[in-house]
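Sequence, please.
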């Protein structure tokens, strides 16, 4: 006998679990099917983000920052700490506790909202009347058959592999392996200076590894505003000590018994490098295999993502897709907002996801964050703009924190003064970027930010000062 639901969500990551909860809140009978198993082989909700992505990476970033601070920053405060040691096992145990706590929390929310929590791999089987038939298997055996009025595909993404190089998560690591190293490698190689490469490289560098990052693109962080990216390159190479090589052409990569040999070309010269561990972080690919897309004719786009319109509608009636498996940035908050919007659209509401105002954060130290257009984009689009910048160097709160590095840049329309972008590198800019998101959503002008009272002393004063600078009224510049 099939179980009947109004809405079945495939995938329990930040897109899927949020969509299921919202659907249930709107009065639908909802189920969420998720296949993820933790290293103990137990189901664990939360998808990539909670289990092997956003949350564990931030836990390790914090642990490694603390270790670094004890060694390098505490003395300035007059605090002597001798014999500081890193217990990697304890660091990983803390990370696992955080994951387990949050995963259990999602299970609790499912119970509270009466979302059926089904473990297994879901695949489209066909259509029964006006219902979609979904089969759920676990370890190859069929465990459930579901019939659903609406299906939301939220199957997420997986690491892109380097052609010809197998990931074993012992020597050659993807994000799962990079988050689970049980000892600090002496020589860590990273292929790809994107978000994962920079975050994971920072963790293991701060814990003592020599880190070399090999990036194919000639431009560092090409998606970021280049003034901020240049500042980031300087501090990440000089202060954090990451050895970032740009414009690299990766050649043969061979995993031996204890190390990995990487041959690459840089500025026309052939280089041979040897690493104890190698992280491959060259982007991610959508999870559509085994979903039965071909069985029901679910259309994929030319890059293999489930093809959707602006409202996350697929080519099939009442089949929706959200998050990493569809176009757009691979970010947890983007996935969640699409999930909420789809559930509300199924309920007949008219939600809107503003793709132009999605915040980006890279959790290096200092952090990098932005929302809206970069200066390069505005130039390319021929938009006339004005800009204001201000640094954290003289900000009292940043100095007190001992993190007075970085800057804020605001970009506003030259005629209307409407804020078009806010770009930052500095302490806790992951939090500060929200001011830009709110301002842009409310279509604020840079003058609005300049006239709003910001607490003193606070990091947000740098945004205030940048907004004043946009109008050539900087008080401390
Ligand atoms: P996922 O989180 O990938 O969840 C999909 C789920 O569906 C998985 O559990 C998968 O097992 C399951 N599944 C797949 N196929 C099936 C099937 N057929 N049947 C049943 N279940 C299935 N984003 C941020 O915004 N901030 C960050 O700080 C951040 N840090 C990251 C750090 C790392 C190391 C990585 C790898 C990613 C990070 N991301 C971050 C990206 C973020 O994890 C993703 O954007 C987000 O998880 C996408 O959510 P999703 O719900 O679309 O998919
Ligand atoms: P990415 O797209 O951020 O970066 C991949 C990098 O690898 C790019 O700079 C690319 O030029 C480079 N590259 C590609 N092929 C290469 C090759 N053959 N040789 C050398 N370099 C090559 O992808 P990444 O870091 O794997 O992360 C995947 C996604 O996960 C991100 O795009 C992001 O959406 C998400 N993420 C978000 C985080 C956050 O929000 N803080 C943290 C980590 C991941």
């Amino acid at each position: 006998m099939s179980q009947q639901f109004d809405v079945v969500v495939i995938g329990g990551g930040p897109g899927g679990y949020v969509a299921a909860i919202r659907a249930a809140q709107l009065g639908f009978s909802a189920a969420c099917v998720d296949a993820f198993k933790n290293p103990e082989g137990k189901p664990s909700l939360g998808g990539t983000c909670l289990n092997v992505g956003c949350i564990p990476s931030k836990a390790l970033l914090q642990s490694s920052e603390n270790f670094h601070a004890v060694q390098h920053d505490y003395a300035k405060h007059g605090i002597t700490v001798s014999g500081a040691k890193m217990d990697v096992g304890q660091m990983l145990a803390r990370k696992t506790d955080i994951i387990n706590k949050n995963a259990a929390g999602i299970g609790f929310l499912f119970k509270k909202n009466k979302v059926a929590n089904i473990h297994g791999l879901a695949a489209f089987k066909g259509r029964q009347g006006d219902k979609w038939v979904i089969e759920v298997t676990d370890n190859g055996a069929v465990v459930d058959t579901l019939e659903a009025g609406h299906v939301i595909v939220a199957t997420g993404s997986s690491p892109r592999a380097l052609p010809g190089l197998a990931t074993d998560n012992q020597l050659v690591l993807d994000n799962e392996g990079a988050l689970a190293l049980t000892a600090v490698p002496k020589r860590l190689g990273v292929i790809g200076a994107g978000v994962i490469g920079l975050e994971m490289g920072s963790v293991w560098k701060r814990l003592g590894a020599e880190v070399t990052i090999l990036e194919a693109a000639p431009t560092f962080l090409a998606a970021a505003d280049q003034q901020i990216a240049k500042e980031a390159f300087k501090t990440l190479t000089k202060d954090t000590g990451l050895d970032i090589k740009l414009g690299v052409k990766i050649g043969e990569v061979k995993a031996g018994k204890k190390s990995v040999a990487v041959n690459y070309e840089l500025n026309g010269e052939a280089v041979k490098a040897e690493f104890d561990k190698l992280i491959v972080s060259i982007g991610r690919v959508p999870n559509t295999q085994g979903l039965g897309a071909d069985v029901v004719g679910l259309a994929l786009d030319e890059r293999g993502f489930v093809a959707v319109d602006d409202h996350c509608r697929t080519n099939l009636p009442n089949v929706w897709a959200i998050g990493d498996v569809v176009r757009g940035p691979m970010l947890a908050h983007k996935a969640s907002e699409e999930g909420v919007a789809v559930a509300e659209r199924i309920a007949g509401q008219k939600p809107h996801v503003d793709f132009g105002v999605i915040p980006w954060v890279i959790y290096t130290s200092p952090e990098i964050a932005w929302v809206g257009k970069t200066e390069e984009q505005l130039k390319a689009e021929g938009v006339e703009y004005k800009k204001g910048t201000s640094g954290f160097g003289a900000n009292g709160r940043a100095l007190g924190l001992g993190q007075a590095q970085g800057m804020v840049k605001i970009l506003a329309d030259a005629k209307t003064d409407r804020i078009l972008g806010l770009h930052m590198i500095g302490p806790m800019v992951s939090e500060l970027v929200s001011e830009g998101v709110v301002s842009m959503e409310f279509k604020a002008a840079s003058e609005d930010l300049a006239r709003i009272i910001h607490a003193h002393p606070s990091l947000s004063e740098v945004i205030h000062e940048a907004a004043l600078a946009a109008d050539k009224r900087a008080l401390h510049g």
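The first strand starts at residue 3 and ends at 10.
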